[in-house]
Amino acid sequence: MEPLGPALGAAAACLLLLLLLLLGRRARGHGQLPPGPWALPLLGNLLQLDLAFRKLSEKYGPVFMLRLGSAPVVVLFGYDVVREVLVSRSEEFTDRGRFPSAEKDNKDLGLFMSNGETWLQTRRFALATLRDFGVGRRDIEEHIQEETGLLLQRLAESRGQPLNPGVLLSAAVGNAICRILFGKRFGYSDPEYLHVLRLLAENFLLESSIAGQLYNMLPSLMDLLPGPHQTFFRNNNFIQDFLARKIAEHEATAHFDAPQDFTDAFLRKIEQVEKGNPRTVFTRENMMVTLFDMLAAGTESTSISIRYCLMVLLEHPAVAEKMQEEIERVMGRERLPALRDRAAMPYTDAVIHEAQRCLDFVPLGFIRTVRQDTQLRGFTIPKGCTIYPVLSSALQDPQHFRNPEVFDPGHFLDETGAFRKNEAFLPFSAGKRMCLGESLARAQLFLFLTAILQRFRLRLPPGVARVDLRPAVSGILNVPRPVELCFCPR
């Protein structure tokens, strides 16, 4: 190789010195940044994302930094640091990070992507209104039990033949939140309702697909390109049109004196309480996004969890049999399950918790950001930096689950067989941003699942040897594969 000429060598030396000065200024400006693997220009660590976070944490510790494109991302790995950020220091890490696929339609409104006063007031209103319409009380339990009876009838109509229960479970689960949002349930054959459910399910897959992940990393470029990510936004538009029609129906028959549902209550808030206030967060736009967020979160996430529980029980027939023995001992085969039964059914409760743990539905945790330079574990997290509080690392923490890679209901049982809480069980996240529908989701998981096992034995279709529990996609969400089951009357 020819030696560098004097001029070229001097230029190279100057460039190297400039680079070192810039790196030194960056380090002094931000203090000691978290460690992490080398990042390529422009691409960052995109080509290294197949590296397991666990391996990176073993090398760099529980707080390390990656770059997705040019954007810095701090990854928090392990129950202790995840809980520290989500709970102990929630004020510093409350803000939602950038999520371009959601931002495009949400516009910093609603419950999921909003921050600051918009998030605070919308969440406070949503929590109070959910309580007003029965969440956490006997009212909502009665609605779920009614829906359970209708679901069991539809499952019985399959007569033990192979059935993909995905849409049917979504319809049953979705009706609980629809009663709250719109004051009505929808029939299992309602074409518009079923289409909305299919679009929601498709979007959960698309958001975690390769195209969806690329969109969230390179939105400006992906907006110019065709692909599945464009289907995601078309689906959102249809769902928004559906919600707009429901809002218009409510406006025509609004019950401002005595709201009949969440939509009525929001309209009353807009018209009677906040009208004339130019700075209010209670606007029609915020109502639309809030309804969208609640419909999506209250339908697909819980129905996916129930479906995954059924899949796990097919893979572990001894566990299913033991659950059915407990169900029969506590409630028999005639009356529908009730939430009061849960305290007498520790094994069933443990199985449901363990299935949620293994599903690991939101593996990375929903992203956060920091408003200002923040110290964490001896490192400086720069202002505006994206934070991934990896919920997987809590749900699979070997300090809290003795066999984290194995499905084992014993993770939630003590030596006497009583149910035992585990502080690292964080499927709904934790702190101020935790899922506000947790109590509704837990009620539906218990009531629907126990009722199904009370009336049916689960079987695989003829010729199928086992269920594939690996996710269909794994990204923002872990979404199970579609599956056919046989619901055989007991």
Automatic annotation (TrEMBL):
A single MF term (Gene Ontology): arachidonate epoxygenase activity
- What Pfam family is a match for this entry? p450
| Mode of membrane association | Peripheral membrane protein
Keywords tagged on the record? Endoplasmic reticulum, Heme, Iron, Membrane, Metal-binding, Microsome, Monooxygenase, Oxidoreductase, Signal
Q: Which residues form the signal peptide?
A: 1-29
Name the needed cofactors.
heme
Query: Which named protein is this?
Result: Uncharacterized protein
Protein source organism: Apteryx owenii
Lineage, highest ranks first:
Eukaryota, Metazoa, Chordata, Craniata, Vertebrata
